Amino acid sequence: MPPAKITKYICSECGHITTTKTGKCPACNSWGTFEEFVEETKPKSARSAPRVRVISSLDVKPPARLTTGINELDRVLGGGLVPGGVVLLGGQPGIGKSTLLLQAAGSIARNYDARVLYISGEESDAQVALRASRLHIASEKLCLYAGSDLEDALRNLDEEEYAFFVLDSVQAMSAENASGWPGTITQVRAVAQRVIDCARAKNIPAVLIGHITKDGKIAGPMMLEHMVDTVLDFSGEGYSAYRMLRAVKNRYGNTDELGVFEMKEDGLVPVEDKSGLYWNRDDSAVAGVAMTIALEGNTPLAAEIQTLAVRTTFPYPRRTSRGIEINRFQLLTAVIDRRCRIATNNHDLYINVAGGLSLQDPSADLGACAAIASALKNIPLKSGTCWLGEVGLAGEVRPVTRIELRLREAARLGFHCAVVSSREQVKFEGLKLTRVSHIDEALAGLLVS
Ligand code: TYD
Ligand code: MG
């Protein structure tokens, strides 16, 4: 019996599938996002009994990983690429996805002395070759396929043995078993599925590059993220040469690692000392500046909180904040006013976290309070001190998560004192701990007069 063909509709936002076309997607409420596609259903063969296995009897050997040799990338992947596993690397155009993967491909080809295939649907032979020469990754084993025909590209993997392949990008390739232009939802889905099947069948790792839309989603359905094993997000601020790599999903590792690169003349260079990103290590004592150690996943980062207090000319003083949520800033200002008896209503207050870092976790509260109080009194805080605590409405100082990790980073960076909550259980030799239970107590002895 020939396969039956059924016309269905798929939402380009969330991947919801229906048999009738509607204006609004019932799953994600987007309008006008349905695209038509034809699904072939194969006749069911006689079914055998479902096969189940006792989990404890299964082989639990960790997979032998293929390391890219780029430490920051390997760490975010959870130790390297897994054979048969497919990674989706998402990021805005121009962020450096092609650069990162070409460097990784070159490094694998060289380190393993094995063939690696780079499939480029976006750039010509000459463009990729020029980039490769800029990156100094010439290798006999690094092969390029430039074109948008997916089947043609993957045929190379049948003819020769390859250790790894990259598809740049999932939106630029066209699969033969799907209709529509490259980049449409049906094409993206078919391309991804074909690559996943191919990687599994050959038991080699693969990376799919995907562009993301302005609102930060990978163009194409969320479904693409469900299909692959690992999703990496490559991002960076427009003005900065630094690029952040994070795992959004990882079937083979955790998602807490942060990888940092700097885009230079000859490609992406890993940044090992991440605390230097947001802190200029200036020891001069300035009123309104406090240091804290924030956590980005598992990575501790030194953060400099700066506050400026200016006598106000407005009936309602201004509160301006960057890097700390404005409501949190107002709350902490109110706590200082009431619990430390430092008048705040006759000053405009500005708070900023240096380097464009955004502090979300409440462990920065104590640092922010210290900076605000120091600015209002126009007295600098003691240098070499970092502040780690959450501040409650009663002015109490509460413990923070992963204190030891933060203290180790503070000691490594040369801080000699940390102000922490008196309820913190940690014992740490690397620097002096000043334990406080109330914000008043925290500020009392630490302002240099
Ligand atoms: P690219 O990898 O093409 O970005 P994507 O694939 O994410 O679209 O990188 C784009 C930018 O990186 C480009 O504007 C130039 C810059 N770049 C460097 O600064 N140095 C380099 O060595 C390379 C290869 C690119
Ligand atoms: Mg590119």
Bound ligands: thymidine-5'-diphosphate, magnesium ion
Radius of gyration: 27 Å
Largest sheet report: 9 strands, mixed
Helix segment tally: 10
Observed structural traits:
binds magnesium ion, single chain, 449 residues, 9-stranded mixed β-sheet, Ribosomal Protein S5, domain 2, Rossmann fold, binds thymidine-5'-diphosphate, 21 strands, alpha/beta
Question: Topology, pairings included?
Answer:
Elements: E1 4-11, E2 17-18, E3 34-41, H1 71-77, E4 86-91, H2 97-112, E5 116-120, H3 125-134, E6 142-146, H4 150-159, E7 164-168, H5 185-202, E8 206-211, H6 223-227, E9 230-235, E10 242-250, E11 258-264, E12 267-270, E13 289-296, E14 299-311, E15 319-322, H7 326-339, E16 347-353, H8 365-377, E17 385-388, E18 390-391, E19 397-398, H9 403-412, E20 417-421, E21 432-436, H10 439-444
Parallel strand pairs: 4-8, 4-9, 5-6, 5-7, 7-8, 15-16, 17-20, 20-21
Antiparallel strand pairs: 1-2, 1-3, 9-10, 10-11, 11-12, 13-14, 14-16, 18-19
Bound molecules: thymidine-5'-diphosphate and magnesium ion.
